[in-house]
Design brief:
about 375 residues; 30 strands; 5-stranded antiparallel β-sheet
Length: about 375
């Protein structure tokens, strides 16, 4: 009789446990990131060299792969293709190719079907290495002791010479931030006046390995020093720039690294020896994500709150997807000699050797 009663008791307990577990454990499945291939093109296929999109509406996106550069359209056409023997720089507004220690460098704007028939937008008035960031034109002199910003015709707008080499650089609509080998970050207004000189300190060897200036100019971040390497974030409060967050980093990078603010300035990213760091600029919360390789780029799907990060480790490139504040939701890797990523209108464009592919993001 006791055995039957025990069996009934265990059965009742089991049923109650199953009911409670079901109520607690059953919940809707989370969203899954899905990348849908749309097209893939070869940048060296001359048969698709078609000029600008026939509708005149398609956005032209710049690319640089190996010794090729140009523009492609969002519907998979090569609008312009140029090869260059030494170096080149390209943005959505300007492009130029140049040799070592070149001088009087011509640069161009909107692409034409035949580049040989195109007139230069201007000529950079100086010697060194040009760099384009959107519609801003910079020139770095031989040796790297300083920098200059140019007008739209290529003439020198302002120039700054320094006693130690420039290590890293950031440009935004609010101005320019330059990190130097002596451990100082100097911020310039768009007109070239010095608006801030920041020396993070706190390390055995002073050097700035990465810096970024937010689009509003109210936030500045940097990776500084060797031995007690740090990430530091400053914000402008009541007209004064104050350190609002800093953290010491494990191990030490000994090469320049990426520092990047999101478009809305809510987050700032930085590369360190263990992966990708991320700080919420409002709450000052901090996360470090163990991605593999050197951080090359951070792009964002603004309306989906997703960030794409491109890294490189030897011949392997990896793309990581991060949702919100440090939630890793996916990744993929590929081998290539060179690569890039660009996000535009919620489509991801991946350049690999001589190929560009478009993938649209969806939730499943």
């Amino acid at each position: 009789m006791k055995i039957k009663e025990n069996i009934r008791l265990f059965a009742v307990i089991g049923c109650v446990f199953i009911l409670i577990y079901t109520l607690i454990a059953v919940h809707p499945l989370g969203r899954e990131l899905q990348l849908t291939p749309v097209w893939s093109i070869s940048v060296t296929d001359r048969n698709i060299h078609t000029g600008t999109d026939s509708s005149g509406q398609d956005t032209l996106l710049p690319f640089e792969l190996g010794q090729n550069m140009g523009y492609f359209t969002t519907n998979g056409k090569i609008a312009l293709l140029e090869t260059f023997p030494f170096k080149a720089t390209i943005s959505g507004t300007y492009r130029a190719s140049f040799g070592q220690d070149a001088s009087s460098i011509p640069f161009y704007t909107s692409p034409a079907v035949d580049p040989a028939q195109e007139n230069p937008a201007g000529t950079i008035d100086g010697t060194g290495f040009p760099f384009f960031q959107d519609d801003r034109i910079y020139l770095f002199p031989p040796g790297g002791y300083g920098l200059a910003q140019c007008n739209t015709d290529g003439s020198i707008k302002w120039q700054f010479d320094y006693y130690v080499p420039l290590i890293c650089f950031s440009s935004s609509p609010a101005g320019t931030a330059a990190g130097f080998a002596d451990g100082s970050v100097i911020v310039f207004s768009p007109e070239g006046s010095v608006t801030q000189t920041f020396v993070p300190g706190g390390s055995e060897y002073s050097i700035i390995l990465g810096t970024a200036l937010s689009d509003s100019g109210t936030q500045l971040a940097c990776v500084s020093g060797i031995n007690d390497q740090r990430f530091v974030l400053t914000q402008e409060k009541n007209g004064l720039n104050k350190v609002v967050f800093h953290t010491y980093l494990d191990n030490n990078l000994r090469e320049p690294t990426l520092v990047h603010f999101s478009a809305d300035e809510q987050y700032v990213f930085y590369g360190f020896s263990g992966g990708l760091g991320m700080v919420d600029c409002s709450s000052l919360q901090h996360k470090q994500l163990p991605v593999t390789g050197r951080i090359l780029a951070v792009e964002e799907y603004a309306d989906k709150n997703i960030f794409c990060t491109l890294t490189k480790s030897e011949d392997t490139y990896s793309v990581y997807f991060i949702e919100g504040f440090g939630n890793m939701i996916g990744s993929f890797s590929f081998e290539a000699d060179n690569a890039f990523i660009t996000v535009h209108d919620n489509a991801l464009y991946v350049g690999k050797n001589n190929t560009i592919s478009r993938m649209d993001i969806n939730w499943k």
